[in-house]
Amino acid sequence: MGPVTEMVRVGSVELCAQSFGERGDPAVLLIGGSSSSMDWWETDFCTQLAAGGRFVVRYDLRDTGQSVHYPPGEPDYGSVELVADAVGLLDAYGIGSACLMGISMGGAMAQLVALDHPDRVSSLVLVSTMAPGGPSAPMDERLRAHFESAPEVDWSDLDAVVGQQVEHARALASGSVPFDEAGTRALVEHALGRTADVRASLTNHNVVRDDREPWFSRLGEIRVPTLVVHGEEDPLMPLPLAEAMVAAIPGATLLVEPGVGHEFVRRSWAVVIPAVLRVSGG
């Protein structure tokens, strides 16, 4: 059976979610990064996890894809609500506990679910992420310069917005491996093509309520199998941040991706998918 897409009522909002595989299999909930719809967890990746005997759920975060949207610049939610959305999706699918796999901001959300609702998390896969309040490492200067010099985009020109997002992805990618411009452009076009409000989707996560204290000091409370996956060349969240997180979470292991930046790329799947299947086993 192919993937099943549905609008799911979670608390007072509706989220668009898609599931792969059999409901009785160990569950994996995929949590996207800032401004990322479910599409950034590519269909082939989800299908391969499901083929490994996992029930996989991916979803559009608030203000992305077909999920609830708010006016640009006025997102009426913070990390408290985003964490509650993840738990609410587990409830909606009848999942007692799941492996939570989150990337970047989604990895931070996965940590918070594990800390606030430990009974709902069977394991963690934390990709290209960090925990606030721990050791610091500066953003790569070339990436900083890119963001500081990026011109304001014409939000009415979808082609221009797509081009801007492709360039952002290029700046976040590895500098030692050729950038897949065609593949990235196709993914961005697809994701924005099914997004209810492109401007809200790409800006609102930058201004959500800051409603959580730094939690690095609490990472020792996490007692589930944890895999940290991190690009060796991540320019946004340098590798030492992942190493510090691994040292703080009891029993956590680190999978370093050579030639990978702040991204989740197909060339790593051959290593990452078997590792996710091992840590998420029922």
Shape: globular
What percent of the residues sit in helical stretches (DSSP H or I)? Answer: 25-40%
Number of helical runs? Answer: 9
How much is the average pLDDT?
96
Fraction of residues in β-strands = 15-25%
**What is the strand tally?**
8
CATH superfamily, called what?
A: Alpha/Beta hydrolase fold, catalytic domain
- Counted up, domains total 1
CATH topological fold name: Rossmann fold
Query: What is the CATH domain class?
Result: Alpha Beta
Biggest β-sheet: strands ordered side by side in the sheet = 1-2-4-3-5-6-7-8
Structural class: alpha/beta
Provide an overview of this structure:
The protein has one domain: Rossmann fold (3-Layer(aba) Sandwich), CATH 3.40.50. Strand 1 and strand 2 form a beta hairpin. It is built from nine helices and eight strands. It is globular and about 45 Å long. It is α/β, with parallel strands linked by helices. An eight-stranded mixed sheet has the order 1-2-4-3-5-6-7-8, sandwiched between helices.
Explain briefly what this protein structure is.
With 282 residues, the chain is an alpha/beta fold. The protein has helices at 43-51, 79-92, 105-116, 141-149, 158-172, 181-193, 198-203, 239-248, 269-279; strands spanning 4-10, 13-20, 27-31, 55-59, 98-103, 121-127, 226-231, 253-257. The chain has one domain: Alpha/Beta hydrolase fold, catalytic domain (Rossmann fold, 3-Layer(aba) Sandwich), CATH 3.40.50.1820.
What is the secondary structure topology, with strand pairs?
Elements: E1 4-10, E2 13-20, E3 27-31, H1 43-51, E4 55-59, H2 79-92, E5 98-103, H3 105-116, E6 121-127, H4 141-149, H5 158-172, H6 181-193, H7 198-203, E7 226-231, H8 239-248, E8 253-257, H9 269-279
Parallel strand pairs: 3-4, 3-5, 5-6, 6-7, 7-8
Antiparallel strand pairs: 1-2, 2-4
Helix pairs in contact: 2-3, 5-6
